[in-house]
Amino acid sequence: MNYFIIGNEDTVLGFELAGVSGISVETPEEADNAFSKALEDKNNGIIIITESAADMIRARVEKLLFTSSFPLIVEIPGSGDLQTGRKDLRTLVNEAIGIKL
Length: 101
What we know:
It is a single chain. This protein is an alpha/beta fold and 101 residues long. The protein has a domain of 63 residues. It has a four-stranded parallel sheet, sandwiched between helices. Strand 1, helix 1 and strand 2 form a beta-alpha-beta unit. The chain is globular.
């Protein structure tokens, strides 16, 4: 089972340093294409997507969240997306994939 990350360039780069493949996106079209590519690979068991990327394709993400149990979709804040009172990115990564960064 593989992990796949979709998000901004900094977030994707950070995950790639931990061995997780992914695609950086900046537009809704790029986010939609990256999401399709992630879903095509049946080895991807967990798709990690930043909140800003998920917001670009919210209807599609929610449809999969509510209708499918595989792959698991995990939304995380990307760099610059952190809000007060939320877990930091490092904690979310640790919880999502079990790798300490």
